[in-house]
């Protein structure tokens, strides 16, 4: 198993293989929720491409699946695409959306998620852009969810995942999380950035070292490969998902 054998000194080629390892066999009933097709989306390299974004994998196997009518979802990174949130509301979950970059999503229709203009990070602070950032533990306490189980946490937070994910482990809040669906970002790195590439991998790999089991990993639809890093290349976006085995194996 690729993920199980990686060390903190893993080489770039090992990391690229780790990203690509989907481990679909870990979930027998996998479903993608949400997704929106963008026409000629402007990418960080200045090029325009057709792109599918916002689709997240959720495992619907017994014990780990969200139970319709009794499930809680936190979604970090809403902006102008809340197809995932709509899909989980229709499924039957109580959904909270978070994004410090917008005032309020222009939701229409009967299905609505509860929105908070808050961003997810390792520490509670107001950043240089004036955005209010909080740790997951602080957000759960603020909303009165300190003792609740979160069925799915979605993170599409433009590289803040590399601070937020380790903090979730260090704070112990992962014991209350069933599933994590996370979009990783390796924007515009080059051969000279192999150290940064390794650092980012290490922060997300901590989830697996902590026991979370990956059940899906896909290169972002429309994602180009990075410039070569130490003579290898990797996609700059991955959609990855894990579950907490303490809920799965009961």
Structural description of this entry:
It is a single chain. The chain is an alpha/beta fold. The chain has a single domain (43-248), classed as Rossmann fold (3-Layer(aba) Sandwich). 22% of the residues lie in helices and 28% in strands. It is built from six helices and 14 strands. The protein has helices at residues 12-20, 83-91, 136-142, 161-170, 194-209, 245-248, and strands spanning 30-33, 36-42, 48-53, 56-59, 72-76, 94-98, 114-116, 119-120, 125-126, 132-134, 150-155, 177-185, 213-219, 237-243. The strands form four sheets. The protein has a seven-stranded mixed sheet. The mean pLDDT is 84.
Features:
3-stranded mixed β-sheet, 7-stranded mixed β-sheet, single chain, 250 residues, Rossmann fold
How do the strands and helices of this protein lay out in sequence?
Elements: H1 12-20, E1 30-33, E2 36-42, E3 48-53, E4 56-59, E5 72-76, H2 83-91, E6 94-98, E7 114-116, E8 119-120, E9 125-126, E10 132-134, H3 136-142, E11 150-155, H4 161-170, E12 177-185, H5 194-209, E13 213-219, E14 237-243, H6 245-248
Parallel strand pairs: 5-6, 5-11, 6-7, 8-10, 11-12
Antiparallel strand pairs: 1-4, 2-3, 9-10, 12-14, 13-14
């Amino acid at each position: 198993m690729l993920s199980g054998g990686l060390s903190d000194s893993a080489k770039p080629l090992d990391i690229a293989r780790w990203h690509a390892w989907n481990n679909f066999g870990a979930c027998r009933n996998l479903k993608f929720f949400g997704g929106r097709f963008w026409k000629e989306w402007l990418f960080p390299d200045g090029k325009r491409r057709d792109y599918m974004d916002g689709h997240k994998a959720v495992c619907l196997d017994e014990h780990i699946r969200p139970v319709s009518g009794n499930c809680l979802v936190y979604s970090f990174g809403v902006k102008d695409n809340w197809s995932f949130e709509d899909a989980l509301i229709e499924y039957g979950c109580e959904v909270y959306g978070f994004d410090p970059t917008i005032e309020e999503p222009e939701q229409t229709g009967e299905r609505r998620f509860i929105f908070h203009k808050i961003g997810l990070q390792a520490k509670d602070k107001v950043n240089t852009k004036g955005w209010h950032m909080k740790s997951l533990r602080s957000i759960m306490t603020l909303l009165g969810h300190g003792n609740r189980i979160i069925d799915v946490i979605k993170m599409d937070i433009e590289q803040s995942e590399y601070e937020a994910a380790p903090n979730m482990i260090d704070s112990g809040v992962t014991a209350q999380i069933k599933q994590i669906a996370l979009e990783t970002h390796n924007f515009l790195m080059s051969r000279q950035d192999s150290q940064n590439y390794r650092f980012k991998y290490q922060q997300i790999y901590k989830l697996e070292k902590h026991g979370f089991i990956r059940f899906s990993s896909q290169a972002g639809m429309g994602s180009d490969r990075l410039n070569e890093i130490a003579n290898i290349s990797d996609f700059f976006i991955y959609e990855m998902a894990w579950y907490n085995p303490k809920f799965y194996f009961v």
